[in-house]
Each structure stands twice: as C-alpha cells, then as structure tokens.
Design a protein that fits this description.
single chain; alpha/beta; ABC transporter transmembrane region fold; Rossmann fold; 2 domains; 6-stranded mixed sheet; 4-stranded antiparallel sheet; 24 helices; 63% helix; disordered C terminus
Length: 629
Amino acid sequence: MPGGWQGAHGFQRDEAVLKHKLAPGTMPQILRFARPYAGTLAFFLGLVVLDAAAGVVNPLIYRELINHGILGGDEHLIIELALLAAGVSLVDSGLTFWQRQIAARIGLEIVFDLRVRVFVHIQKMSLAFFTRARTGALVSRLNSDVSGVRDAFTDILSTAIGNLVTMTLVLAAMFTLSWRLTLGALILVPAFLLPARYVGRRLRALTRETYDRIADMNNLMVERFNVAGAMVSKVFGRPEDEKEIFVRQAGRVRDIGVKVSAYARLLFIGLGLVASLAVSVVYGWGGVEAARHTLDVGTVVALIAYLQRLYGPVTALSNLQVSVMTTLVSFERVFEVLDLQPTVTEKAGATPIPPGPVRVEFAAVGFRYPTAGEVSLASLESVAALGQHPEKEVLQDVSFVAEPGQMIALVGPSGAGKTTLAQLAARFYDVRAGAIRCNGVDLRDATLESVRQTVGMVMQDAHLFHDTLRANLLYAKPGASEAELAAALRDAQIDAVVAALPQGLDTVVGDRGHRLSGGEKQRVAIARLLLKAPAVVILDEATAHLDSESERAIQEAFVSALKGRTSLVIAHRLSTVQNADLILVLNQGRIVERGRHAELYQAGGLYAQLYRTQFAAKPNPAAAESKGR
C-alpha cells in the first residue's frame, strides 16, 4: 500500500533528468521489451488497483460502526462490522503481500533478462571496444542502470497506478462525506509541497554528492586492493599518508550521509506534521459540526482516516514525472549498449574452417584501427563526444603464406605492426583491405566458432582468472579428463610445480594469477593452449620479460606446443626464432625483409641491425648466429 515515505523518498531523484532528451526510438524499444511480460504486468496492475480500493473501504465501515453500532447501541452490528473491517484488513494485507511478491518476481526476471542480454552482447564486441570502454562504466550498466529499468516496471508502475487510484477514491469518498471539510483539509497541501520541494532539491544535491564521494572512495580501494596497485603501494606507498587519504574520503561520505539522513528525516517529519495539522482541522471543524448535529461523528472519524491515506500519494505523484524520466533514462542507457553493433560479426551462411593442418595466407592485407565512434560510446569513455577521424594505416600490403607445420617469426622494432598482424590472424579485428585465409576460407566468411577452435594464442602477459588452476585449464576444454590435464601440464613443463602446490590443481591462483611467478603463469597458459589443441598457434612475445631459467623451460614447452602446428611467433629476443622456417621483418606496417636467419643476417639489413644490437655484448655475434643455425 502506498505510504508516506514512498512519496518523500521520490524527492531524492535528480530533477535535472527532466532536461534530458531521450534518444529517438527509446519508447518503442521499451514496449517491445515489455511485450513478454504483458500478461503478468496486467495481473500485477489489477492487484495494485484492488489493493488501493481495499484500503478505501475500512473508513466507511468505521463510519457505519460508530453511527449505527456504537451510537445506536446495536452490539450485534458492532461485532459484525468489526469482523468485516478485520476481514477487509486481512484481504488488504494479502493483496499487498501478493502484489509485492509479483513485483519482486517481475523485477528480478527483468534484471536477469537484461543483465544476460547486456553481458552476452558486450562479450560479442571487438577488442577495440574493450581497449576504450571503462570497465566501471560497463559494470554500472549491468548493475545500476538495469536496476533502474526494474524500477520502471515495478516501483513506478505500482506507485503511479496505486497512488492515483488511492488518491482518486479517497478524494471521491471525502467529497461525498463532506466537501467543506475536505476543502479545508486540502488547503494545507501547498503548505507542505512548496517547502518539501525546496528540501527535496537540497536532498537531491546531497544524494548526487554522496554518489560521487562513494565513487571516489571505491576507486581508491580498487586501485589499492588489486595486486598491481598493492605492489606499487608496498614499494612507494606511505601507510600513514594512505590512511589519511582514506580517512578523509570516508569522512566525507560519513558527513554527507549525516546530512542526507537529517534532510530526509526532516522531509518525513514535515509530511507527518502537515497531515497532523490537517487531522486537527478536521477534528476541530468536524467536532463543532458534530456537536451541532450538522455532521455525524462517524463521518468525522472516516474523514480523519482518509486524510492519513491521502498525503503520501499526493506527495509521491507530485514527483512522478522525475521518477518516470529517471527510469526512462536508465532504459536508454541500457539500450544504447545493446544497440552498439560489434564490428566483428558472423555472416549469414558462414562456413567452418576445414579441420586438420591449416595453411594460413595473408593476401595484400591492409589495416587501420577503427575510430572511437565506430566501436564505442561517449558515455562509456566519460567524454563529451567521440572522434571520427580515421587512424593511420597500421599494416599495408602484407602478404605471406604459412604452410601447415611451419613456424613464421615476426620481428621488427616497436610499433612495426607485429601484434596487430597476430590479432588479425585470430580475428580480433577484420582487415580493411586484402584477405586472411585459413585453408582457403576468408576469416570474414568463417564461423566464429571455427576461428576460435582453429587459432590459439599465448600472450606476453598471460592472464589467469581468480580461480583454481583446474578451472583456468578447463576454460580451454571443459570436458578434459584428468589424463589430458596431466599430459598438458607435463608437456608445458609445469607438472612438477603444480604437484608441489598445497592443493595441486585445486589451488586458487589469485587475481590475474599473481600467486604464480611470471614463468609459471606462462607455462600454465601454454598448458591451456595444449588442451585446446588448435591447428594455428600465435605466440605474442611470450618470453619477453622472463629470466633465463624460465625462458629455457618455456622454450622446451614450445617444442610440444608447436609440434605439427602452423605457428606465428612474435619475438623480442631474436635468439628464440633463429630456427624459424621463415622470418618476416616488419617496419612501419610493411614487410621489409623475409627469409631465414642466416640469409637475413648476411644481407646486413634491418634484421642484422636488430640482431647486432641485441648481441652487441658478445665478442663474436657471427659465431652466435652460426650456433643458432
């Protein structure tokens, strides 16, 4: 049943939202989304109306009980009407409970449905989307905005319909009983609403500031509590200063919370005070009328009961426009994410890449990264607008073939386009010119599932989820047996390390796998790759930042990982690719040299320059080169 605090609570919403213009098409989208819930919503609204109507019956029963039962001395009638009032109250309570249960179910179903939709849709976005969007903003869409959508279907509907029906029925009953006393009581409504809106504006401002301060405090905790932030804090941080910063931010949250509580309580007390004054008016005026026998006592009591039900709905409906607009904005913010189309999609009638050994062909490939406007939203980047200026060409006219089982090494200075080339092979992006084919199938024409099954990658910074080793490995092959897990760990040269862990495969690796060393994480990533058993393997500088011992273990693991597979290896340390079947030297997005190690070194070009730079400390780089062959 609508209550006084529901109306007061509505003043916390931000009135500035009324200035917001909804994106075209938002309302039709809302109606399409609501269609599956139409039957349940209609039943829910029916309960709301019945609940509101039931709440209006009892004052009329009390009127009859007083006028004809008590004053008439009819004990039998008194008992009957008292039992009837109790029955109506029970029905009213049952309807309220039923209404709240259905509202909760509808709200939770909507939240579940929308969260799944948004989560699945975001996962379909290209890598460019994730390089730009703020993670916190995406999480907010899944939490705060989706909850706002739930409010539109439950709280707003029940508040609007319930309060409107309640107010209409109460006013109709009051005017029927005594239009003069009703008008006298309603004169006090503006006396409450005007100062209430002033207090409400102050409350909204404080509420916005509260959200900002809580966000600042949460941001500090996220930065200090993740592993990387904790490491920096341990090395450079000053514990007492850190404490002072947090105390200052937490203190602001506390102080604003006290103010919000005070204003909210003042608003609530003000509502009660005006209602009490109105009751006093009815008692005084109605009492005089009853004493003069121009109005019966039962009517006075009924009017007072109605007054107690009137002010809450009046207050809530006075702020209904702000509440509705707030929820519509939440809808819009969710829909704008769902309307953002992925730049990498599966064509209708896509064909799978044929199984078996894979031939990879780059044919005159050209590529530039998409603009921000093509892949992102301003609201997810905390910027006013997104630039539409195209990025410069990252790859130009890149052509080569990797035959089944061959290892192709990609080398060159930083920014040459090596990682971009590897990401195109995994179809993180689509080429802008030319084509990439696996066994003759253009990646743009292939099913996304077959691309994922065909191509595997080990990156420079191997990422492990905050879960057990077993879960991280099974992510690549959910149905893998214990024997397959053991074989993958053995081939990745990590089985002894896992056996020495307290819970073995059931050991939790920590945030981003930080409970393991860099070399151990890389070998777990290789084991994960081996479980997947892709036909094409991409190694993106997988040993760039490892010590010699870890690098040696990983090189041994690569023997198993690359055996019989087509591989693209991005190498920072040229010593790791001397035995490659083909070395491609990239510079400024173009292949400027290609060949095997010996011929490239003898040619004296960019490759030889890079090699001599890395091995400058050695007295005889040619000998090192010869040894590498």
